[in-house]
Amino acid sequence: MSTCTDSNEERNIWNWKSRFVSLICHYSLELSHTMRGSRGFKLKDRCKTTQVHAYNPSSETSTSNPFPFPISKLHFPTINSILQESADSIISLSTAETFLPYGLPRTDSFEPPLELCLKSVDFVESLAELYRKIQMTQDFDKSLVYLEQYALLCSLGDPKLLRRCLQSARQHAVDVHSKVVLSAWLRFERREDELVGSSALDCIGRVVECPNAALLHGYDPNSVFDHCLCSNQISHFGNNFLSSESEEDGVVCFCIGNEEVNCIRGKIAALSAPLKSMLYGNFIESDKQRIDFTHVGISADGMRAVDFFTRTRRLDSCSPNVLLELLSFANRFCCEEMKSACDCYLASLLSDIDEALVLIDYALEERAHLLVASCLQLMLRELPGYLYNPKVLNTFCSSEARERLATVGQASFLLYYFLSQVAIEDNMVSKVTVMLLERLKECANERWQKALALHQLGCVLLERKDYKEAQHCFEMAIEAGNIYSIVGVARTKLKQGQMFLAYELINDIIIKYKPMGWMYQERSLYSLGKQKILDVNEATRLDPTLTFPYKYRAIAMVEDSQIEAAVTEINRIVDFKVSPDCIELRAWCFIALEDYQSAIRDIRALLTLEPNFMMFHGKVRADHLVELLSQHVQPWSPADCWMQLYDRWSFVDDIGSLSVIYQMLINDPGRSVLRFRQSLLLLRLNCQKAAMRSLRLARNHSTSKYEKLVYEGWILYDTGHREEALAKAEESISIQRSFEAFFLKAYALADTTLDSESSSYVIQLLEEALKCPSDGLRKGQALNNLGSIYVDCNKLDLAADCYVSALEIKHTRAHQGLARVYHLKNDRKAAYEEMTKLIDKAQNKASAYEKRSEYCDRDMANNDLSMATQLDPLRTYPYRYRAAGNLLFSWSNCRELLFF
């Protein structure tokens, strides 16, 4: 027993010794890191470890000592102190370490993503050349030219502009295939599939998006403005097939198994030349009254349908199975008229994706062009939901599948351009994406098509770390005319350890072409030392919209432990361009500063932009991080949330407002009005896709018909369909009078040049809206809009009353309208002071500085416009103002020269 006890004591002593030695090594390593003369004390190291032992930084180090200072100066802990200090270190450990398990990003492993679009080195010249090309092209050949315009304008990232290109391409489409793909693409851009209760064959009443109209061949120049006939149920198969002129009265009997079908010989013969030769030629059947058709592949019901068609030219009494038999019979005996009729009628009968998936192979085998198009249409209009369906993949992805589609005229660059864009958006590095881009490359005929397909394929292969193949694709894209693909070649060389060659490639572009921001941004990846930061700064000067330079400078500041400065740097771009990557980086910085309330704000805003966002390079769900951080901040009640929302709304803090609404939606996820407020904020931040998603969610969560109609109206209005939006608003008002319905109607009507009569009607609508129940946030906006209409009608006193009423309910933007009223009353000082109030209150001040410049002298105006440009380089008025001033100055100098 004593032996066992002694053994346990020895084991415990050994364990204490081991822990003692481990702690000594741990302290030594920490002190070594602390004294290391590298570039500042790394924040990520601070978050990973906690310094628990003091040392004398002035002590001299000995060359024979492995520690960075004399061992005699160290105070070694005792065993008792080990236990106490271990517990203290756990308690004192920074909570930032918990929330930054993967550290912060590093400048040496940080690079901007490649753009997947055509990017010209002279955008204006390329756009002008494309415009000339459109003008010189016949109307019925313009569809692909507008598609090329779409590919070029993708670099701007403006959804409305891109949608207009697709609408123009659809308007000028002639063949059924192009119409089917483009109408499906337009539906995909609106994400109609996300609307609860919607069908793939629904349309908004316009020809350009109507699935029925897409199946009609021909060019209609007014299709973009015309309404479709869906309510009248377009029939693709009519009674326009004339009866045969053959009057042969002879009867022939077709025997199929034990059944007999009597037909008129002449009418059967009139179906095709082969049947005519069989019944009236030199074949033995020409002398027979009974012909055995048992092994022809048609049933007795099918043969009766053939006979019925020859007599009436109608198929509407046939079942789908019989129609398929007729289609096969028509192919076997070359009955083109009957085949066309079956093809049209079967295409018109398709109603859902399941039917399409069943019939597509049969339609391809029988080469039923319209039926294949109808099947494809249902597949395409269900994207992205059915993208990974095995049947859909078998239809599109392989080279053999493309060839099968080509045999019926249903394989094109247009088709695979659409499919590849859907796949890239869903999962850029998937095998499906690669296969679709391979098919896109095979379908490319024109130079721009080859350049686009090869460049996008190169980008995907680069992401998949297939550097050799990616480089080959980029080089081929350069040969096809896409200079920007040189960036791709440089990236592949960098990944293969050829940094100097990558630098030379980008440097040659800067020398050869007019320097642009993205060129210097790219060269900074291959530069060192001061040259790197110079390139990054030059990129911002030439193109302030590039996010990478701001992020790089911020990360460099973080590495120097200047976290507050890093936040300020990120704020420079977030204030005028909201992007998920910048919001994420700022949230990381706030976590490092242990400012968890601000971090939560940013992550909630981030989740509004991308609901499934993964932080820390895709390792942690953003919503999970919010849950963890929320344990360290004071929770808000619903009343607190509404107060915070009003405060942030009045301070023109759109990101803060988004965060509060996100919190409110967690407590009440089915509140459609909150989703609608969310969409308004996202539109202010120019996040149009996210705004549309919020609108769709608002519509889906609506519990009443009248409310659902309003949100559908806003979706239509935001996608350029003003008349349809007005119709939705009127239908909603007919069910129940509501603030939002009146406001939508007024807003849509005001979006034109208003005459006095129209303005009066809009005023009445806004006044009716204000009589309906709503909250102060929306009523403030209605009052502001009403004041604007009064100003346009020169009713300045009424306008001022509206603006004052709006300000009383904290609609801060009304300061701008009130300033305009003062200005029109020739009181510029009061106008200036009113805009100063807005600047003092608003968090986003660029527009306020710009507007205030109109109410002061030239020098003060220049100062305000300079501040506006600094806060938001995307605002164009300051540049135009300064350019006009310089032009006036130059002309003044020219006049002076005339006197000499």
Automatic annotation (TrEMBL):
Coiled-coil stretches noted in the UniProt entry, renumbered to this chain: 825-852
Keywords associated with the record: Coiled coil, TPR repeat
Pfam families named in the record: TPR_8
Start-end of each TPR repeat: 780-813
Taxonomy, superkingdom: Eukaryota
Example GO BP: negative regulation of ethylene-activated signaling pathway
Pathway entry: Protein modification; protein ubiquitination
Protein name as it appears in the record: Ethylene-overproduction protein 1 isoform X2
